[in-house]
Amino acid sequence: MGRLSNRIFRRPPDLAVDGDNPEVPASAGVESSGVDDARRDRIRSAGEALLAAIAYGDAAGAPYEGEPARPIHVRQLVGYDSPVFGPSPAGGWTDDTQLSLAVARALIASDRFDLDRIADEHLRQLHQTPKATIGDVTLVRGWGPSTVAAVDRYRCGAPPADSGTPNGAGNGVLMKMAPLVWWQSATGLSEDAAIGQWDALTAFTHRSLVARVCTRVHGTVLRRLLERPDLSGADTIALALAAARHHEQEIGAPPHTSAELQIVGSWTPGACEQQLRDH
Question: Is the pTM of this model over 0.85?
Answer without folding.
Answer: no
